[in-house]
Amino acid sequence: MAVAAPASLLGDLLALPRPGHWPDLRARAEAALEGRDLPTTREEAWKYTDLKPLREFAFRPSAAPAPGAPAMLPEAPGTRIAFLNGAFAPHLSNLSALPPGVRLLRLTQATEAAQGFGTLVAPGGDPFADLNTARFTEGALLVIPAGLRVETVLHVVFCNAGTAEAPALSLPRLHVVLEKGAQATLVEEHLGTGTYLSCPVAEVVLHEGARLHHERIQRESLEAFHLASLGARLEGHAAYALRTVHLGSRLGRLVPEITLAQSEAELELDGLALLDGSQLVDTHSRIAHAVPACRTRQLYKSIVDGESRSVFNGRIHVMPGAQQTDARQQARSLLLSERARVDAKPELEIYADDVKCAHGAAIGQLDPEELFYLQSRGMTPALARNLLTYAFAADVLATIPVPSLRRQLRKAVLERTHADGLEL
Amino acid sequence: MLSIRGLKARIGANEVLRGIDLEVNAGEVHAIMGPNGSGKSTLGKVLAGHPSYEVTEGEVLFDGKNLFELEADERARAGLFLGFQHPIEVPGVSNAQFLRLAYNKKAEADGRDELDPLEFDDFVRVKVADVKMDPAFLDRSLNEGFSGGEKKRNEILQMAVLEPRLAILDELDSGLDIDALRVLGEAVNRQMKPERALLLITHFPRLLETIHPTQVHVLSQGRIVKRGGKELAMELEERGYDWVKAEAAAAGRA
Ligand SMILES: Nc1ncnc2c1ncn2[C@@H]1O[C@H](COP(=O)(O)OP(=O)(O)OP(=O)(O)O)[C@@H](O)[C@H]1O
Ligand SMILES: [Mg+2]
After folding, report:
1. Ligand 1 centroid distance, CA of A39 (Å)
2. Which residues hold their Cβ within 5 A of ligand 2, which is an ion?
């Protein structure tokens, strides 16, 4: 069973030795965490996400043996960097086929400065991000030089492993810079086995005209905690397509904080959470339109079954002067069980007058007309329900530009929704 | 094949069907016409088993068996097909996946072999060509973003794949351009076999120029108020429905 509850999880972890590199940044994160305990549901940002279960475990960094090798993406042959409990995993990595000019390497081995490092997820925000900043030991750096269009998919994998007796701590770190006009497709995966706490931080800098497809796949173990932050900054005419898929973890949270910092930047943010059992997944997105003429499209879908819980809080902040902002946000949930629960809260804060903004939140059951249509084609009520549930989720996956990943995820959704017979 | 006797049905407090009698034999085509709101689509949905409608009186026999003892999906697998006036969009499921699943459920019920994706691909391409559809539509999400006419074409494709013994086509002609109407009318004709039957709900005689009806029935306020041949459709086209309603009212008073 669980080890004796630690007095203060954050304090205990902060007592770990400070790793080398970035001493100033770490000192600021430590200062922000000084005397802080785990957030409680009394804090607005954690209102629906109770962290009490975290207190049952004394998470510690550990060099656990590698779990089974994660699936290779045929689209990323020799362009994969992997980490195990936050440490570089050479046996799971293969960087033999990096296209010329592309830099994908360990953060601690980079000779170049990681532009904007520690500024997009800055100290003083989310405490788990601060914990990462204060104590991470390794991470991935991806730099695409100006004007380079990379066809090969780049794959960053964070594997984790722990046990209930020796619950592991993992602090994955990812830093991405696309220089002017660069283009790339990045798959960021989080997966693992057993009991552990992973607190990943990813930062993304898109310079003028850069375009990034970022697929963020969370399929952690169902005994794991995943408390993540992601910060991104878009310069003029940059286009960022971020898709976040949550299939795993008993308790998962992601805080994407994205700033459209120069005009004509475009953000497409798609999210899917497929939850069952007693899972809880919380997405707190913070999107800031700081300048005129930027565009945001956000779609967040969750399917909740069993006693699971989906929390969505999406703030779009249109700052003074950010005229001609075009921002649309939609949150849709499918409730499959009476004991499941959805808390969805869009927050549009608009301080400019010439803008097009819209948001909608819909929580519902399956549409009876759709069910009847499928039944009228010979499908049993159960199959019709499963098929529509599958379709609700698969819709978000349709635009994944990496075919093997799209198939993998569709298959995972197919299995979870029991839409058998619908082979792909 | 289909015997409708004294059928009454309602939705909520609204009694929409108020006593319908209709006999459809194998090999026959029956057209149902009538003003907006007269209950045509309701008849189709009641026959197909839509759960929102309550049958209050009467009976319907399909091959001698009580239709109302079957759920909607069982009716479909027994060979009944409803082509919707407003087909439903299902984003996330490709047309091809959906068609194959529907085909295999029917095949399973009929004791025929199911088709794997490759076999089905060969099978469906012939059907797609028959309704002159662009095969690219197979990979799109079911009806999602289809134009009105494209949805109707897709309904006929589904019919071609499922080969129902009794097809009820609810306003196949609405939303179709003149060429599409001819193409799909001919596709439906090619499917007609002596052992199959059709119930065509329509507002326009043009469709009946391609698919020749055995009989035309006029529905008004939930009752069939007039029956005739193809010429009745022409007469309605010229004169509208008022005279039929007046005749029916007079007959009712008499
Ligand atoms: N949910 C409902 N509640 C109450 N009345 C309804 C409901 N659904 C349908 N009706 C009514 O039932 C009547 C018959 O509708 P139906 O759709 O069968 O007409 P229709 O003959 O197909 O008309 P159209 O030619 O316009 O397609 C209409 O008056 C309609 O308003
Ligand atoms: Mg109708």
Report:
1. 55
2. B 40-41, 85
Q: Which amino acid, residue A143? A: V
Query: For residue A367, how far is its CA from the centre of ligand 2 (angstroms)?
Result: 20
Kindly report the protein residue whose alpha carbon is nearest to atom 30 of ligand 1: B37
Helices (H) and strands (E) in chain A, counts: 6, 22
Token representation of residue A318: 């249109």
Q: Scanning every residue of chain B, which has its alpha carbon at the shortest distance from the alpha carbon of A384?
A: B73
Alpha-carbon gap, residue B248 to B24, rounded angstroms: 23
A381/B73 Cβ within 8 A = yes
Decide if pLDDT at A67 tops 90: no
* pLDDT for residue B239: 87
Question: Residue-wise over A183-221: b if at least 16 C-beta within 10 A, else e?
Answer: bbbbbbbbbbbbbbbbbbbbbbbbbbbbbbbbbbbbbbb
Domain boundaries, chain A: 9-262, 367-424
Tokens of B131: 């309704």
CA A394 to chain centre: 18
Sequence-distant (≥ 6) Cβ neighbours of residue A321 within 8 angstroms: A291, A292, A352
- Does B88 contact A378 at a Cβ distance shorter than 8 Å? no
pTM listed for this prediction: 0.86
Residues of chain B below pLDDT 70: 254
Chain B CB contacts of A380 under 8 Å are 73, 105
**C-beta atoms of B92 and A424 within 8 A:** no
- From the CB of B44, is ligand 1 less than 6 Å away? no
- Please give the pLDDT value at position A4: 46
Do A147 and A180 form a contact (C-beta atoms < 8 A)? yes
DSSP B206: H
Gap from CA of B11 to ligand 1 centroid (Å): 9
The verdict on a CB contact (< 8 Å) between A422 and B162 is no
Fold assignment, B2-253:
Rossmann fold (3.40.50)
Q: Is-contact A303 A333, C-beta < 8 A?
A: yes
> Does B92 contact A395 at a Cβ distance shorter than 8 Å?
yes
Decide if pLDDT at A168 tops 80: yes
Pocket lining: B39 vs ligand 1, CB cutoff 6 Å? yes
- Give the per-residue SS3 of A229-255: EEEEEECCCCEEEEEEEECCCCEEEEE
User: What is the rounded average pLDDT for all residues in chain A?
Assistant: 93
CA-based nearest residue in chain B for residue A397: B92
DSSP codes joined into one string, A294-334: -EEEEEEEEEE-TT-EEEEEEEEEE-TT-TT-EEEEEEEEE
Q: Is the CB of B51 under 6 A from ligand 1?
A: no
- Number of Cβ pairs closer than 8 Å across A and B? 85
Query: According to the model, what pLDDT value does residue A207 have?
Result: 98
Tokens of A332: 């849709």
Q: Which amino acid is at B83?
A: G
Q: How far is it, in rounded angstroms, from Cα A350 to Cα A329?
A: 14
**B74 burial level (CB within 10 Å; 0-12, 13-18, 19+):** middle
